[in-house]
Amino acid sequence: MARAKRFSRLKRGFRRFATVAGESVRRARDYAGNIRALRRRRSPEPVEEQRAVITGIGAVTCLGLDAATTWDGLINGRSGIAPITQFDASHLPVRIAGEVKHFDPLKYIEPKEARRMSRCSHFAIAAGQEALRDAGLEIGRDVKPERAGVVIGTAMGGFEMVDNGLQEYRKLGLRRANPFALPASLANAPGHHVSTFFGAKGHLATPVAACASGTQAIGDAADLIRRGRVDVAFAGGVEATVIEPAIVAFALMRVLSTHSNDAPEKAAKPFDANRDGFVYSEGCVIVMVESLDHALARGAKIYAEVLGMGVSSDAHHIAIPDPKAGGAIRAMQWALEDAGIGPRDVDHINAHGSGTQANDPLETMAIKQVFGERAYDIPVNSIKSMVGHAMGGAGAIEALATILTIRDGIIPPTINLATPDPECDLDYVPNVARRRDVNIAMSNSFGLGGQNACIIFGRYE
């Protein structure tokens, strides 16, 4: 009898355990189902990738204070290189630069705000105004502020503000020094001011990639468009540091041209056997990158499409390029892959073409490695022969030239190309612009620190 009672209790206990266990399993299943449903709600169905197009261009360069004047100077082979006027350079081995002339920030910005900004932020707002106007866009009317982004690259930002602020402090004392010197000098200040000035409240980023900054900024903005993060974006690059510390530093590195101080327009000689370095310059180009659907819906004009970009690192040296040009080769190959095209599809290459002894033969070698025998049939030019090297702004200025080459079918020349270099044996469009139909064009930017960026634009069809 006692044994039967014990068996009965065990039986009831097992049933209770089974009931509790079953309930726990059911609850666990319900919980997992709820989590899956929640994830489905948080992760919308993949959207079709957007195409990214250029609908507006703005420029402030040593050739002019707008895109049209800059382009006219480029296709007519006009040099913007001249004696330095922003400081006394008479004691230096380098006395020339590509300075922006006759620029008045008060035409674009209220005096109080202008005093709180660096020169590069002045340039960015001016170029941004032109780009927005050229695109026929008004933020808040044509696009929601939260769907408008800003991606503006720079190498040195408002470095001059730190230098000026330190001098003011030493001369005037702590109480009279400029409290805005530090924030105005930050690399993200141009992007901040463009975002604030135009009310763009979407994605904000500042690629700092030395000489590749402007190129990478435009490519990054196109990626934002493709992923549906924004509908439009201000994108480009800016530099405005024709100042004594910068000229002295690059002169000490022996990368600046020193042989043409008395004939500045002849100083920049990319791919020429007698090149002796690059010419430091300043400037800014901002383009409006927009989703194709958004542009078509509002009837916008379209300059070109951003087809792809490749970014790589030499992982070699802070100042000396990889002697095998591995980073440059990878950037070009990856840009072609990103664009979904092959070497035979490229009609023109806007080269980095800095005019240093090291860069030009290495870039030539890289182009030949990527394009093979086809390299000899592709017109390659360097507009740095006319506008110098604007560091973080260079790639954006070169993007302007590449985009308008596609639009107009005119390839700007590489001026000052008089003496062939056996190591630089491609077609560099010497001295005179060339008419040619260009459907797809590549633009290269190779910077200090082994930063490489290559972007590909195509005719919109």
Polypeptide structure, described:
This protein is 38% helix and 16% strand. It is α/β, with parallel strands linked by helices and 461 residues long. The chain has a single domain, classed as Thiolase/Chalcone synthase (Peroxisomal Thiolase, Chain A, domain 1, 3-Layer(aba) Sandwich). The protein is globular, with a radius of gyration of 28 Å. The mean pLDDT is 92.
How is this fold's topology laid out?
Blueprint: H1 2-42, E1 52-60, H2 67-75, E2 82-83, E3 96-97, H3 111-115, H4 119-135, E4 148-153, H5 159-172, H6 181-185, H7 189-198, E5 204-205, H8 213-226, E6 232-239, H9 244-252, E7 283-291, H10 292-297, E8 304-313, H11 326-339, E9 348-350, H12 359-371, E10 380-381, H13 384-387, H14 394-408, E11 410-411, E12 434-435, E13 440-447, E14 451-458
Parallel strand pairs: 4-5, 4-6, 9-10, 9-13
Antiparallel strand pairs: 1-7, 1-8, 2-3, 6-7, 8-14, 11-12, 13-14
Helix pairs in contact: 4-7, 8-14, 11-12
